[in-house]
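queue> holo job accepted (zinc ion)
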Amino acid sequence: METKRRRIPGIFIYIGLLLLGLLIYMYISSGYRNEDTSYTNDNLKNDLKEDMVYAVTIQQNSEIPTGTVDVIFNDGTEKIFYTPDVSETGKLVEEHGEGVTFRMLDVKRESLLERFLPYIFMGIALAILAGIILAQSSAAGGGNGKILNFGKSRARKISDTKIKFSDVAGLVEEKEELEEIVDFLADPGKYIKLGARIPKGIILVGPPGTGKTLLAKAVSGEAGVPFFSISGSDFVEMFVGVGAARVRDLFEDAKKNSPCIVFIDEIDAVARRRGSGLGGGHDEREQTLNQLLVEMDGFAENSGIIVLAATNRVDILDPAILRPGRFDRRISVGRPDVKGREEILKVHTKNKPVGDDVDLNKIARTTSGFSGADLENLINESAISAAKDNRPYINNADIEKSFVKVGIGTEKRSRVVPEKERRITAYHESGHAILFHELSEVESVHSVSIIPNGVGAAGYTMPLPEDDNIFNTKKKMLQHIMVDFGGRIAEELIFEDVTTGASQDIKQATATARDMVVKYGFSEKVGPINYETNNDEEVFLGRDLGHARAFGENVATTIDEEVKKIIDYCYEEAKKIISANMDVLHKSAELLLEKEKIDGNEFDALFNDGAKLEPEM
Ligand code: ADP
Ligand code: MG
Ligand code: ZN
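queue> job finished
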């Protein structure tokens, strides 16, 4: 018999959560939470020294000089304790809390409530959001970190950074460009006397992890001026008016503390093109952006405030933000080249003991495409690996292990993979590897593995890093498409059925072929005309949806035909090459099944080598 599952009606969940929000509000706005009497200034000092602290907020009590201290740790936990003397605790944070978000709130009670107003709203928003999530709650669960962390993101922070240009490796030209800003901030009078104009706003553009934040901090560190920062993403989930108020606050503080740096991270989150939203709901962003523009226009040049902003998407910024007198100077921060990578590695191994077998130059050569943050991560993972082994220094094996972890994801030996699946993966990856080996314009094999990475990939074939050449050629792109098809073709040649495991390969191959036709003019029939449609932008940008395609049905058909032609050609060529190397395919798959992971030398040894192949289209 069937039993009917009883469900609590959704409305009760909502009301319950709203009440919860109200409770949170009352709890927070009361200003006094359960204090921890065992925690003292001494504990705080210790934790600051150990770099465990994320933020400290001191609330002065009306019984001067006592206060309540709210400490938020990097792991998200929180301690609240009573201090007999707020200035003593404040000094502690200033002395030992480099980089810690620090605020001292004064006694005024009404301003306290005002300060917490955003949190009230957030409490309620949280309740509603949680309601929605619960209502839709499905197996795909797992906590939403952002919601749980809402209390942590203070919108502004003041810290005197000690970061210097020497901590920023590579980026030589970028640092040179910022040199005059440093000079100006250190002595604005010198420039004012000469009537020299210094830009108010500079925008740093580049992919994540390339050192934009680091550069901004270094400017303030070099000039010895305060650093005020705010992140565009802080505003995203806020209610109308809060963002604008925060921006106003931020600039008020900056004016009081000039010369100084104001840093707006992820400016694209607030400064997207206006009037582009679908279905409204963007008032908050627009108000915040408008306020930012008002503030930028509101202070004079040479007033000692330099606004630095960072983004990785300059193309989606509202043009108003880039006008003269606003962010009219742009500095591109790119991914590091080999030399840059070696220097970044040097910076991050400076204070870490490293064994003789670690060759930073070699690591630099094998990490093409890594950002500074990736490299930092690589060294950090290696240090953890060394510590786990109770070895007092990092060796090359640590680096290699971490390389796979940072580059591809964690190696998971624990998951038991069915034999059939292992076999398919072994042939699939061997197919890719054979093409990497045989084709002239792609790099040889660095390693092949059938160890699942725990996040979806059953294996991987990693080529040696390419030279840092910027130019992609038609031939090279064709060969990359062939390599993409290697996995599917190997499956097809060996097994009766094919798997879905090649979907990512197919996607990548299609994208490359399409780019060749619509972007690079590699198809004679279509000609050197750009037919990109830009529909990969986030939908709520809305801007391009109205005119997603600026060409007719005929052109669209021709493009599709030309893409298909490239795909078919590459598929056939790739199939020929693999078919001519069936012995290698079997040997490679067997070796993989035995060892799970083989390196480039072991793989190359399977061939009776001839010259590299160069198919022409
Ligand atoms: P972005 O702001 O561009 O996303 P960050 O400045 O936050 O990148 O960089 C993240 C981390 O990566 C830095 O804290 C630093 O450890 C490391 N890093 C990035 N670029 C460099 C560099 N050029 N030199 C040294 N370290 C770097
Ligand atoms: Mg950053
Ligand atoms: Zn594949």
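queue> The first helix runs from residue 10 to 29.
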